[in-house]
Write a structure and sequence with these properties.
Elements (H helix, E strand, L loop, with lengths): L5 E7 L2 H13 L4 E5 L14 E6 L3 H7 L4
Antiparallel strand pairs: 1-3, 2-3
Length: about 70
């Protein structure tokens, strides 16, 4: 596994939920990315599929602890 590989930490029901979790991780110094298909920007905030929160592989354990995920 590459050190800079992105790993899914959680799957969210909305982009707002994912962005809130991303901000929570950022406050703890963990970089995270929200991956969602917003239909090419046609409908911002509306996703056509999965909404995933991704972190670097070395941050997975800490991110899960911060988000209280087992």
């Amino acid at each position: 596994m590459a050190a800079d590989e992105l790993i899914e930490v959680i799957e969210c029901f909305s982009t707002a939920e994912a962005e809130l979790a991303r901000a929570h991780l950022a406050a703890e110094g963990i970089d995270a990315t929200v991956a969602a298909d917003d239909i090419g920007g046609m409908y911002p905030g509306v996703s056509a599929g999965r909404i995933r929160l991704l972190v670097r592989s070395e941050d997975v354990a800490t991110a899960k602890q911060v988000l209280e995920i087992e």
